[in-house]
Design brief:
single chain, alpha/beta, Rossmann fold, 2 domains, 11 helices, 4-stranded parallel β-sheet, 306 residues
């Protein structure tokens, strides 16, 4: 059996192209499993996984928890809001206390970039990065690629526009790495204030015109405006952002060919997407949610074999 080249999933940057294809191929098998009448398999019956979330999360935490339970793992959920972290306990002490309870794998979200990498160097358990600050969110990029595969047959040769708040998005960076490793062309689009200067060095196209991006791409992956991460104002108002960078169903219908519309959620309806666009036939947003469980099952299963 093929195995991953790394015992942790810390970022897409650390994965090889064959790692990505192995995860996506395994996810296809698990997607068949979760669409059966009996959705559980005993693959991780003797494995204990701790979901350690130092930042708020709904979709990602629920998706991981469901994936773990579908694999028959024992699951421990840890939330920083009601923990000894509030009393000054360090990250390493917190996780070592969890490991003392004989946990085999840690799924962690943290507000500090690099926190999962720090953890992986100091503990024996497998570590899965469920999002670290504005750095990476590898399982989101993998499920996005899986969703493109399912809809269009392949990622190689496709043109993908990532539109919105690139500066504050961990999804954008992981997606760029993941798509490029599979042979896709990538464009980032948004206001100049929300596109970091280093983007050009990553070999992506840059646009500040949403219509130009939609005309160019096969897939539009639209990102949320992350107001909670913005310490200063990057644009005059949400209304103005929506006017210049918001996407409506009418704009999609006016294109000379159909494109695929994606969004990692949660959607700010009426800001980056109108409701009729989000719910249109162009959209595979709910497919992304379903595919997220299959991809996370694949990641957990493959790491548990190492």
């Amino acid at each position: 059996m093929q195995s991953l080249s790394t015992r942790h999933l810390l970022g897409i940057k650390d994965l090889t192209e064959s790692d990505i294809h192995l995860i996506l191929d395994t996810a296809r098998e698990f997607k068949d499993v979760i669409n059966r009448p009996i959705k559980k398999v005993p693959s991780l019956r003797d494995i204990t996984i701790a979901n350690v979330f130092f930042e708020n999360s709904t979709r990602t935490r629920l998706s991981f928890e469901l994936a773990e339970k579908r694999l028959s793992a024992d699951v421990v959920n840890f939330s920083a809001s009601g923990s000894s972290v509030k009393k000054g306990e360090t990250l390493l002490d917190t996780v070592n206390n969890i490991l003392a309870m004989k946990v085999d794998m840690i799924v962690m979200r943290h507000s500090s970039p690099g926190a999962p990498h720090y953890l992986a160097k100091h503990i024996p358990a497998n570590v899965v990065n469920a999002g670290d600050g504005t750095h990476e969110h590898p399982t989101q990029a993998l499920l996005d690629s899986f969703s493109i595969h399912q809809k269009l047959g392949d990622v190689a040769g496709k043109r993908v526009a990532i539109i919105g708040d690139i500066t504050h998005s961990r999804v954008a960076l992981s997606n760029i790495f993941c798509l490029q490793k599979q042979g896709a062309e990538v464009m980032v689009c948004g206001p100049a204030t929300l596109i970091p200067k280093h983007m050009a060095a990553l070999g992506v196209r840059i646009s500040h015109n949403v219509r130009e991006a939609l005309d160019w791409c096969d897939v539009a992956n639209v990102l949320r405006i992350q107001l909670e991460r913005q310490q200063i104002k990057y644009f005059p108002s949400l209304r103005e952002y929506s006017l210049y960078f918001g996407i409506s169903k009418q704009m999609l219908d006016e294109l000379d060919r159909p494109i695929v519309l994606m969004h990692p959620g949660p959607i700010n309806r009426g800001v980056e997407l109108t409701s009729d666009a989000a719910d249109s036939h162009h959209s595979i947003i709910l497919d992304q949610v379903e595919n997220g469980v299959a991809v996370r099952m694949a990641v957990l299963y493959l790491l548990a074999q190492l």
